[in-house]
């Protein structure tokens, strides 16, 4: 690894509350319009958070997974759509050491990142295959050309699609025995078309549209890895446990934002027949205790796992996936509890709780979903308990 050619700004970890507030100021409007959150992403970039995970050897701060969890929780509290777009950029930087980029290509990405938001995301899910977390080979094809590769196919749920600088496309080669790899496609390359079909209940501003790739030509060096993989091969969900825990931190932020609104409502609402804030009633205190118990234990799980990873304490894939499953259950239940407590006011679009309720529904959608995670966890612990011989 050569000396870094760029010096990226240090992430503003001491100003996360300010970043949260700035994102929250625009979140309702981008949710209403489903517009790409340009202003929020610029705030994240200006705070040095988009590149927080870049290693020191490449000019970055090299934030550990515990700091990344703090960042994503803070961003999720302000605007989960912008937080998810940020997460998809942070993760390739965080795992760069494990899946190295070609040096020249990565240097170009970092040079761009130093001056403007440079968004990355993996494009993996396909209309026919679905999520690769459940196994299978992609229909997207990479064809050898004289100068490199030509990539064609269609991907679904590409978060931040219209604002990406680079698409990291999972594709199979057209060789007699197909290999599978990740091909890096600059967004301004001819043949890329974003298909605006993201019409979801929550995370509306994440712009997770379909993208069509038609004979998109890239140099030979724009490949992260190409390896043999049989047609029945399954994705190793346990190996990516840290990734899944980090995404859970984002939804902890959503749930904490929902909790703040419930608390504010409880102190401001004074029914005439009661003559005092509903926060003083047993019903609201009981629900507030339930919500805090759910969220504090979820935080202990998520931040406990990320802290252990940073300190070099072994964390099995099963442990990490289990933390993700329980955290998702808890944050979802916490927001549901708050909504039931408030009733009609909670469902009003005049209040943020309605938006938080919609956004938290996406917590359990990210692969691997709960059934796949539990199967992987169960297989791992049963294999570990198998009799010797």
Feature tags:
389 residues; alpha+beta; Butyryl-Coa Dehydrogenase, subunit A, domain 1; Butyryl-CoA Dehydrogenase, subunit A, domain 2; Butyryl-CoA Dehydrogenase, subunit A, domain 3; 3 domains; globular
**Total helical elements:** 11
Q: SSE order in H/E notation?
A: HHHHHEEEEEEEEHHHHHH
What number of structural domains do the residues give?
3
In percent, how helical is the residue content? 40-55%
| General form | globular
Mean pLDDT: 93
Radius of gyration: 22 Å
Structural class by secondary-structure content: alpha+beta
- CATH topology group of the largest domain: Butyryl-CoA Dehydrogenase, subunit A, domain 3
Regions with pLDDT < 50 over 5+ consecutive residues?
A: none
């Amino acid at each position: 690894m050569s000396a870094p050619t760029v010096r990226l700004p240090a992430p503003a970890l001491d100003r996360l509350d300010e970043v949260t507030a700035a994102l929250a100021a625009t979140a309702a409007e981008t949710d209403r319009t489903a517009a790409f959150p340009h202003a929020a992403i610029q705030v994240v970039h200006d705070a040095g958070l988009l590149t927080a995970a870049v290693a020191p050897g490449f000019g970055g701060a090299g934030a550990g997974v515990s700091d990344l969890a703090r960042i994503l929780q803070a961003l999720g509290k302000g605007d989960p759509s912008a937080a998810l777009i940020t997460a998809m950029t942070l993760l390739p930087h965080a795992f760069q050491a494990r899946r190295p980029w070609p040096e020249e290509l990565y240097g170009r990405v970092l040079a761009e990142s130093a001056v403007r938001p440079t968004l990355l995301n993996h494009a993996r899910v396909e209309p026919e295959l679905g999520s690769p977390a459940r196994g299978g080979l992609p229909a997207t094809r990479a064809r050898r050309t004289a100068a490199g590769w030509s990539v064609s196919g269609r991907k679904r749920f590409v978060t931040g699609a219209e604002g990406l600088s680079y698409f990291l496309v999972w594709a199979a080669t057209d060789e007699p025995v197909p290999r599978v790899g990740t091909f890096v496609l600059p967004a301004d390359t001819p043949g890329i078309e974003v298909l605006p079909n993201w019409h979801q209940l929550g995370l509306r501003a994440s712009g997770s549209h379909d993208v069509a790739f038609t004979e998109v030509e890239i140099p030979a060096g724009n490949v992260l890895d190409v390896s043999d993989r049989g047609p029945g091969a399954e994705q190793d969900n346990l190996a990516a446990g840290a990734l899944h825990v980090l995404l859970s931190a984002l939804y902890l932020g959503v749930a904490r934002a929902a909790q703040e609104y419930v608390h504010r409502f409880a102190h401001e609402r004074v029914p005439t027949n009661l003559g005092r804030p509903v926060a003083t009633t047993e019903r609201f205190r009981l629900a507030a205790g339930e919500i805090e118990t759910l969220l504090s234990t979820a935080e202990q799980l998520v931040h406990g796992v990320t802290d252990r990873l940073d300190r070099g304490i072994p964390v099995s894939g099963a442990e990490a996936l289990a933390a993700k499953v329980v955290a998702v259950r808890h944050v979802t239940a916490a927001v549901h509890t708050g909504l039931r407590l408030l009733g009609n006011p909670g469902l009003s679009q005049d209040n943020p709780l309605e938006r938080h309720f919609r956004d938290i529904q996406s917590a359990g959608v990210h692969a691997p979903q709960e059934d796949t995670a539990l199967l992987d966890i169960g297989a791992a612990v049963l294999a570990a308990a198998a009799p010797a011989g």
